[in-house]
Amino acid sequence: MAESVLRCVVLYLAVILAVRVMGKRQIGELQPSELVVTIMISEFAALPLQDINFPLLWGLVPMFFLVALELIMSFVTLKSIRLRAFFYGQPILLIYNGKINREELLKTRVSVEDVMEAMRANGLLRIEDIHTAVLETNGTISIIPKPELAPPSAKDMKIKVEKCGGMPQIIVMDGTLVKKNMEIKGVDEQQIEKILHGYGVPLEQVFMLTIDDLGKTYLVSRRKEDV
Amino acid sequence: MKRFLISLILILLFVGGSVVYDQWFMCRFAGEMNKGIDRVIQAQEQSEKEKAVDQLNSCYAKRHPIADHLIFSNRLEEIETLLYKLNAYIEEEEEAEILATAQELRSRINLLHSIEFYRGNRSKDFCIR
C-alpha cells in the first residue's frame, strides 16, 4: 500500500512537471498532436499505478521521452510553415462574405448546426449576418460578423478615451508585500506606507492592494468596518 | 528559448541516461549471473558447488536493489524462486536437480536479457525450457 501511495506522489509530480514543461498552451487549446500526447502521458502514468510489478521508470522514461518529442515538434513546427500545416492542419474558411463553403463543410465533416451553434455563442442568429466563419486548427469555430453588425469601437465612434492604466499589479497580498511586483511598478516600501497612510489602513490589515501604470491604487481591507 | 532548451536537454539526458544505464545494467546483470551459473554447473565437488551458489546468491543480492527498478517484479520473483530451489537442492546434494535448476535459471536470465533492446546481446546458450 505504501508503495502505491509513493508511486502516486511521484507520478502526480511527474505529470504536473510534464504538462508544465509542455507549456500553458496545453491547458486551454489542444492541437491534435498535443491531445495525443496528453492522452498518452496519462496512460503511461496509469500503468505503474495499476500494476505494482511494473517498474516506475518504465512509466516515467516513455512519458518524458514523449514530452521531449512534443517539445522538439513544437520547435520544428514553429520554424517550418509546411511542417506546421502537416502536423496541426490549417484554418479552414467555412463561410466567407456570407457564403457557405459546402465543399469545406463536407471535407471537414462540420455540420451547419455546428456553425449555427458557434454563431449563437457569438450572439448572432442568422447565417447571412456572418462575414467569415473559420474552423481553427484546435477545432473551434471563430465567427466574425458583417461590419455593419460588429459592435462599434471607440475609434469608430471617434470618442476620446482615457489613457490605459495597464494591468494592475498586486503590491500587497494578505498583509505581505509582493517584492517582485513592487520592482515591476517601481515602488518602494516608503511609497507604499504613504499610500496605506492615505487609506488609513495598516499593512497587516490589507487584504489586497493593487497599483496600475498610471499610479491608480485599489485597496481591499481585512477590517470589517472598512468593508 | 533558454528555458525551453534547458528543459529539453534535461529531459533528453534523463531519458538517454536511463536507456543507456538500463542497457548497461542488464548486460552486466545477465553476464554476472550467467558466469555464476556456469561455475555451479562446472563445479565437481560439493564444496565448490556450495561456494559457487553462494557467489550466485551474493551477486543477485548485490544487483537486486537496482534490478528492482528496471525489471518487472514478477520476473525477479521467478529468478528468486529458482535461486531458492537451487540453494535447497545444493543442501540436499541432488545433482540432477541442481543441473536442471541451474539451466532453468540460465534460461530465465537470458529471457530477461533477450527482451526488448537486449536481443542483440543474447547469450549463445540462450534457451527456453
Entry keywords:
heterodimer, A: 227 residues, alpha+beta, CRO Repressor, 3 domains, four-stranded antiparallel β-sheet, 9 helices, 8 strands, 49% helix, flat, B: 129 residues, mainly alpha, Four Helix Bundle (Hemerythrin (Met), subunit A), 82% helix, 0% strand, elongated
Mean pLDDT across residues of chain A:
85
- Count of alpha and pi helical runs of chain B: 4
End-to-end C-alpha gap of chain B: 55 Å
The largest interface is: A-B, 16 and 17 residues
Largest sheet, spatial ordering of strands of chain A: 2-1-3-4
Detail the topology: elements first, then pairings.
The complex is a heterodimer of chains A (227) and B (129).
Chain A: H1 2-22, H2 25-28, H3 32-50, H4 56-79, H5 81-88, E1 92-96, E2 99-100, H6 102-108, H7 112-121, E3 130-135, E4 141-145, E5 169-173, E6 176-177, H8 179-185, H9 189-199, E7 206-211, E8 217-221
Antiparallel strand pairs in A: 1-2, 1-3, 3-4, 5-6, 5-7, 7-8
Helix pairs in contact in A: 1-3, 1-4, 3-4, 4-5
Chain B: H1 2-42, H2 46-70, H3 73-92, H4 95-114
Give an overview in words.
The complex is a heterodimer of chains A (227) and B (129). Chain A has 227 residues and is of the alpha+beta class. Chain A folds into three domains: 2-85, no CATH class; 92-149, bsu07140 like domains (CRO Repressor), CATH 3.30.240.20; 169-226, bsu07140 like domains (CRO Repressor, 2-Layer Sandwich), CATH 3.30.240.20. Chain A contains nine helices and eight strands. A four-stranded antiparallel β-sheet of chain A has the order 2-1-3-4. A four-stranded antiparallel β-sheet of chain A has the order 6-5-7-8. The longest helix of chain A has 24 residues, at 56-79. Chain B has a single domain, classed as Four Helix Bundle (Hemerythrin (Met), subunit A). Helices cover 82% and strands 0% of the residues of chain B. Chain B has four helices and no strands. Chain B has helices spanning 2-42, 46-70, 73-92, 95-114. The interface between A and B is medium-sized, with 16 and 17 residues.
